[in-house]
Each structure stands twice: as structure tokens, then as C-alpha cells.
Write a structure and sequence with these properties.
By secondary structure, this protein is mostly helical. About 75% of the residues lie in helices and about 0% in strands.
Length: about 475
């Protein structure tokens, strides 16, 4: 690493991977509860497991974004971080708040938790993905303000680049849109209308800017391609992402009581949303093919290429499958939605965080790349997690198609629970795939310990041939 203050990113990355592990474990618990409804009841009810699964996903991704910013911004700005002590402080505040919130979910009934944490004073709880207690939401805002101040001052006092400015804009948008989590109108249509301003405009708006800046940074460092070339691609990708993503929010407004024109606006612009993801895929492979150097961290390049491909498949292809209003009439809220969500989150945001961690952690530990033995494990973990996630998506898609046919697209619809029993085989297959995914994550975590051991014993670095990967990485 070039600047000592970049070291503050390390605890963020470690905590992010720990929370990722917790998220996957609770995902497997949820998968089992789909077919064995009273599994772990009453210790871990289904609604609690679901809250922990989705909330740890959000927190660990945010933790990864913050670590990436603390590593990326000083290098792009060519100066030390404005206030390293503040970065350390916000890390512990964020981590402790997240831990206490999860403990609250597991130890106290949700209604009681709402009473204990001031929800009567400022009602914000009870909505999907925004279940966090009001006091936790206030803490998130405080952490976000301190984080943005630290990053903003570093950018203002240093060199300005397209990469750092796009990341800063994305982080600012993330913080501003979260404020709608505090707006909880009694009218259900208004509630859902503005709820999507957090949920959709995060993942299909400002998060895409953060993702693009992180991917560009890693590709610049690992390929040696001219920054001007990367910046031209970034301008187009970001413009398309914002234009299609912002107006594409309308694909959530089809059936919630909003005017009918949203069916046209939502269908047209969300049908265009795969374009920026397709361009990101072309961009990533083009940069690797034009590379001027063979970076020793081949695992990081593989993660980067995987990000582009699986983000396009998950967010683009699977998103398009059910985004048109006439199709969404039958598919909304089905397992098709779950299939899209799993592959889109994994491809776009899980993989970009791992890409950044894979590139930065060796440098934070004083080496340009991990040992070949460690990178072999990383590549195995990539294929194990990615292939198992593709199978999870396919099984959920199959379950969704059957669910739609038996429950919605028929003159004799079956009751919901009867349909759930008929698709149980796909749920079991999803659990098996989830266990393989957990094994892949365990392999990834193991690669760090192998890298540390090999760094102490350089004579043990010969690991044999590496597994094949795209584009001759």
C-alpha cells in the first residue's frame, strides 16, 4: 500500500467477511425452514432468521464499501486519509451497533424490541429490509455522516479523479436515500412508493456507481490500461445506469395503487437496465484483453471478471425476465423474484466486494499478491460459490415457474401452502446448493490463512498448476 492510512480498511474487510459468513449460515437455516417449518422454533423463528439474513447482507456490503473507500480514496487522491482515527471510531460504532441489533432480533420479540428502542417516538420499524430499530437507524446516519466527512475532505484536499468522484457521488446518494427509511406514512401506497426509494434506488441506482468505481480501480491497477480509456467507459456506464435505474423504479409501482402510466415507464426503462451491465461485462473483458501488465494477483482479476458476468446475468437477464408489466402481473412476489435477487446481489455486490478485498488485502499485508497456493484456493472458492449460486438461481426459477402456473396462471388455482408442498423438491436442492456455497466461502476464508503461512515460509510456495479461468487470467 502507498499510504499508511489505507490500513484502516483492513478491519472493515475482516468484519465484512465475518458478517458474510453469518448471512450465509442464516440463509441455510431459512432454506431448511422452507421445507421443515418448525426447524429451530421457537429459538429462531422464520421471520427472525429472515431479518438476520437480509440485514447482515446489507451491513456486510456496506462495511465492504466503506473499507473499499478507505483503501481506494487515499490512493486516488494521492494523500493520506483526512482523519484515520475517525475511520477507526466509526468502524467500532458500526460493528457494535450491528451486533447489538442482531442480538436484539434473536433475544427479544420484535414488538418488544420496537418498544425498547423508541419506535413509539419515531415509527420506522416493521418494513422489509428496513427492520432495524429506530435507534440503530439513527446510529447508521451518524456513522454515514462521519464517513462521508472523512472521505469528502480527503477528496477535496487531494487529486480529483473520475474514479474517486463517481465513488463519492455514489456514497452521497446512498446516505441521502437512506433518510427515506425514517419516512413511514400510514397510507400503504405512499409507504411502498417511498420505500422503494431506499431499496430500489440503492441497488439499481447509487450502488451501481460504487460498484463501477471499485471495478474500474481494480482493473486500472491490475491491467495497466490507460486511465483515460477506463474513464470513457465509466462515463457511459454510469450515465446508462442512472437513466435506466432511476426511472426503472417504476417496475415496482405496477400493482400498488399508483397511476397506470407507471406500467409503461417501468416496462420501458427497466427493460433497458441490462444495458449498463452488459457494457460493464464488455468493459471488464476489454480491459483485461488490452492489459499492459500481467499482475501477479490473478485471483483478483478472476473475481473482477466474475463480477461483470454474473452481475449481467443476475441483474440484467434475470431482472429482464419478469420486469415487463404483462409478465410481472403473474410473477411479482414469486420465487422468480427470489431467483433474480439472489443472483443479482451476488453478482453485482458480493463479488465486487470480494474483488476489492482480494486485491487490497495482500497489499495491506505487505505483499503485491498472495502465494500461488492461496490463489488456487481463492479460484476454487470463486467457482464453488459462483456455480452453486447459479444452481440456487435455477432451482428457484424452476420453483417460481411451477408456482406461477399452479397458483396464478390457471383457472383452478391451488392454495398457497399446497403449491409450496409441490415445489419442495426445488427447495431441498436449494439447501444442498447453499451448503456447497458455504463450503466455497469456507475455502475463501481458508485462503487467507494459507497466504499468511506461506508468507512466513516462502519455501513452500510451489502449488502446481492453477485452475483455468476466463480470458486467460
Amino acid at each position: 500500500m502507498k499510504y499508511t492510512s489505507q490500513a484502516v480498511a483492513k478491519p472493515y474487510f475482516i468484519a465484512a467477511i465475518g458478517l458474510f459468513l453469518a448471512q450465509v449460515i442464516f440463509g441455510i437455516i431459512l432454506g431448511i425452514q422452507y421445507v421443515i417449518g418448525d426447524s429451530l422454533f421457537p429459538e429462531i423463528p422464520f421471520n427472525v432468521a429472515r431479518m438476520v439474513h437480509t440485514n447482515t447482507l446489507i451491513v456486510w456490503l456496506l462495511m465492504g464499501f466503506m473499507g473499499a473507500a478507505y483503501y481506494l480514496i487515499p490512493e486516488e487522491s494521492e494523500r493520506e486519509l483526512y482523519a484515520p482515527w475517525l475511520a477507526h471510531l466509526t468502524f467500532w460504532v458500526f460493528l457494535i451497533a450491528a451486533a447489538l441489533t442482531v442480538i436484539g432480533y434473536l433475544a427479544v420479540p420484535y414488538a418488544r424490541l420496537a418498544e425498547m428502542t423508541g419506535n413509539d417516538i419515531l415509527p420506522t420499524m416493521g418494513r422489509e429490509f428496513l427492520e432495524q430499530p429506530t435507534i440503530t437507524k439513527v446510529g447508521i446516519v451518524i456513522v454515514a455522516l462521519a464517513f462521508l466527512f472523512n472521505i469528502g475532505m480527503t477528496v477535496l484536499k487531494g487529486r480529483k479523479t473520475v474514479v474517486s468522484l463517481i465513488m463519492l457521488i455514489g456514497l452521497l446518494g446512498l446516505a441521502l436515500l437512506f433518510l427515506f427509511a425514517f419516512y413511514n406514512p400510514t397510507n400503504l401506497v405512499l409507504d411502498k412508493f417511498y420505500w422503494w426509494w431506499v431499496v430500489h434506488l440503492w441497488v439499481e441506482g447509487v450502488w451501481e456507481l460504487i460498484m463501477a468505481s471499485m471495478l474500474a480501480f481494480v482493473l486500472i491497477k491490475t491491467t495497466g490500461v490507460d486511465r483515460e480509456v477506463v474513464e470513457k467507459w465509466l462515463y457511459i456506464i454510469v450515465a446508462l445506469a442512472l437513466i435506466t435505474g432511476i426511472i426503472g423504479t417504476g417496475h415496482h409501482y405496477y400493482w400498488i395503487g399508483t397511476p397506470e402510466y407507471w406500467q409503461w415507464w417501468g416496462s420501458i426503462f427497466s427493460a433497458l437496465e441490462p444495458l449498463p451491465f452488459f457494457m460493464m461485462t464488455v468493459f471488464a473483458f476489454n480491459m483485461v484483453n488490452q492489459r499492459r501488465r500481467n499482475h501477479p494477483n490473478k485471483a483478483a482479476v478472476l473475481w473482477a471478471l466474475g463480477t461483470a458476468v454474473l452481475a449481467f446475468l443476475g441483474a440484467g437477464v434475470w431482472g429482464f425476465l419478469h420486469t415487463l408489466a404483462p409478465v410481472n402481473f403473474y410473477t411479482h412476489g414469486s420465487q422468480i423474484t427470489a431467483a433474480h435477487g439472489h443472483l443479482a446481489f451476488y453478482g453485482a455486490y458480493v463479488l465486487i466486494n470480494i474483488t476489492m478485498i482480494s486485491y487490497a488485502m495482500p497489499l495491506l499485508n505487505g505483499r503485491e499478491a498472495n502465494s500461488m497456493r492461496s490463489q488456487v484456493l481463492e479460484m476454487w472458492s470463486f467457482w464453488l460459490m459462483s456455480v452453486s449460486m447459479v444452481f440456487i438461481t435455477l432451482f428457484l426459477t424452476a420453483a417460481g415457474i411451477l408456482q406461477i402456473f399452479l397458483q396464478r396462471y390457471t383457472e383452478t388455482p391451488l392454495p398457497f401452502m399446497v403449491v409450496q408442498e409441490k415445489v419442495a423438491l426445488f427447495y431441498w436442492l436449494r439447501v444442498i446448493s447453499g451448503l456447497v456455497f458455504l463450503g466455497g466461502l469456507g475455502t475463501y476464508i481458508a485462503s487467507f490463512f494459507v497466504a499468511a503461512r506461506d508468507a512466513k515460509h516462502p519455501q513452500a510456495l510451489d502449488a502446481g498448476p492453477m485452475p483455468s479461468s476466463p480470458a486467460g487470467v
